[in-house]
Amino acid sequence: MSMFISLLVGGLVLGCTYGMLSLGLSLIYQASGFMNFTQANLLMFGAFVCYQFFGVWEIPFVISLILSVAIMFCVGWGIERVVIRRLVAKKAKNVYVVLSTIAISIIIENLAMLIWNPRQHYFPSIFKDSSPIKIGSASIGKESLLCIVVALAAMVALHFFLNKTKFGTAMRAAAQNKTAASCMGINVNKTIGITYGIAAALACLGGILIAPKMTAYYQVGNQISMKSFAGAVIGGYGHIYGAIVGAMFVGLLETFVGAYISSAYKELIVYGVMILFMIIKPSGLFNAKVYE
Amino acid sequence: MKKNGFFETKKGKTIAAAVILALLVIIPLLMDNNIILKQNKYFYVLLCLIGIYTIITSGLDILFGYTGQISFGHAGFFCIGAYGSVLLTHPGWGLGKLTGYVLPPILSILLVACITACIGALLAVPASKLVFHFLSMLTIAFNQIIYLIANNFSWLTNGSIGITSVPAVTILGFSFSTVSSKLRYYYLVLFFVIVLLVVKTHIINSRVGRGLIAIRENPTAANGCGINVAKYKIMSFAISAFYVGLAGGLYVHMIGFVSPDTFIQNTSVIFITMLLFGGSGNLVGPILGAAVITFIQEGLQSLADYRMLIYGVLLLIIILFQPQGLSGLGKTFSGLAARGKGGESNG
Fold this sequence. Notes:
Helix content of chain A: over 70%
Structural class of chain B: mainly alpha
Number of domains of chain B: 1
CATH class of chain B: Mainly Alpha
CATH topology of chain B: ABC transporter involved in vitamin B12 uptake, BtuC
Strand content of chain B: under 5%
CATH architecture of chain B: Orthogonal Bundle
Radius of gyration of chain A: 19 Å
Order of helices and strands of chain B: HHHHHHHEEHHHHHHHH
Oligomer: heterodimer
């Protein structure tokens, strides 16, 4: 039983991290209709930025977290501003936009490798007193709980931001119909830019929260990139709540398969489930629109 | 020369192709006998690699440049081609281990290319229905799965250690072993490159090719004109996979060693970079891209850490400023490229 609980928590932690990415993917897909392959590497980069503040310069954790999230927000916005918007303005084919995000993700990954060398960096523990919390017979690390709590809080906050604030409503309107939204006086470029920023900030948050468990390493992005896509696909690509559910499912599936069947095949099974979903039900659990 | 430049006419093109071909045959032969320059084994390896990458990028071009379908999983097909050919010919692994019989390498290369084409067609069945975003994701997942299989199924592929001493190609007792002479293998690769490029030209100029181009321009309109879009997409995938599978077989019998690390996701990105750098949707672009990127790659050997960064920046610059690639730089560039390539062979 204690193994089950610790696996469940481990799976939820992974699921939350993938969820932050899938959420960003879905937000961007809704807002601009493009797939973004930079997400996972932004997560990695965000974790490194926070490592620099918190681990190297020893700035208090909360401040380094806010600083790195703010920096990554600007990075995401900057990517949209400098590359994506320019390509869209040139009426480039969709394929080229997707390719450009792949190019950016390669650049980010290798920049991180050059700045912080290819070693694995141990992220210092967030809490001074790192004794685990006991639930029944199982003991759970505080960082894991923090990860789940912050991720859930971020998701709820995003929900309220999109549904209750004026700017969130404008974002949803722009996602539904760009022409109509711009006729209503909504600055569509701005909403899309901010969507990219929010997605990058979410990725950064996910990266910081998972970093104490996974260490900061420049190839983390590659490891989790496809899994976040799997989460988004299983939930229904472009569906915000679907993304969270799908990502949780992927995290739990990976953890339990790794523990009870074989850790060599866990990724194969996750990708297999994703491909099955693509073939049998591409619209995912929440019936998103994906056919040509 | 302006509107009807010599290299624009059919006769001119034939002559240009014949001249390049003659140069590609004669120069290495002269080098091998130390008549011009000096015999240089490393240079033959480079030429072989360029040939193999040319096959891959041409295959990818049929899919991306002519049909407009993206694939980030061509390293997966490459992997199937390479491992497939090893498993069919190696006495200690795969078929040789199970039954004691092995196929001659040249037969296995062709057979594996056909198998790869079938796998490509299978992959295309769901892929032909998806929008391109999901296509790119599906192909990435395909690449990852193939990589994971090569890496984790140790009983089949010897895991991450890889398989060494892959047998050399032999045709009717004539050995193409790369240990004694890389030059022979270069001619083998050159033969395949020429055959496949001719086949590609014929496919593109046929009814099928026009159907593919119609799909690239507008799938809905193509469908309206009576083109079976799904069928043509599947064909395009299969042809593309055939090219890459064949290149995989050629690659592995040249290097004589295979390990999963060759087939990571980055390799697929490098293929795309080659294609875009050279220019997609024409005959010369893929050759040019393969040649230039291979030379860049070898030139940057000392800067191995920066290599992927440079690819990324190159890719981004091409996408932003020169989507047509090198071959789109000028109208008569194909003629210039012919001379440029001859010059590169000299150096």
